[in-house]
User: Which sequence fits this backbone?
């Protein structure tokens, strides 16, 4: 059995990571964590500046630092992968590649209208995932 956690460094991502760490041994599951470096399209204009800022590298560094900080509380071994692109699409693709049985993902709990206007990674993963999705709400 394989449990995949989508992690983005946020409080709700941390809540999902902790919950998955608790669930993996109960399910006798291998635990993978996916971090997706996502650079908004409007940010690409910065790529034409004379300093040639690598925004993906900055995002990957941020995610790796957040994960290193978060994993100090983890009790079980995890496999960590980094992807680049649109988060929901990359999470779903990786789940398909590894044959995940469950995806664990955090949610901000914005509700229907705000998610519709702002987009929701968890909503997209729920509707596109090849397996069951466990949504973890971070207590407010």
Assistant:
């Amino acid at each position: 059995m394989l449990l995949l956690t989508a992690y983005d460094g946020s409080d709700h991502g941390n809540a999902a990571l902790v919950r998955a760490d608790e669930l993996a041994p109960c399910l006798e599951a291998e635990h993978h964590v996916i971090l997706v470096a996502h650079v908004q399209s409007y940010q690409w204009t910065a790529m034409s500046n004379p300093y040639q800022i690598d925004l993906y590298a900055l995002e990957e560094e941020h995610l790796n630092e957040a994960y290193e900080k978060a994993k100090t509380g983890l009790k079980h071994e995890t496999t960590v992968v980094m992807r680049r692109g649109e988060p929901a699409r990359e999470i779903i693709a990786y789940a398909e590649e590894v044959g995940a049985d469950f995806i664990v993902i955090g949610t901000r709990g914005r509700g229907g209208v705000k998610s519709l206007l702002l987009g929701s990674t968890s909503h997209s993963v729920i509707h596109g995932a090849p397996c069951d999705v466990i949504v973890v709400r971070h207590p407010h």
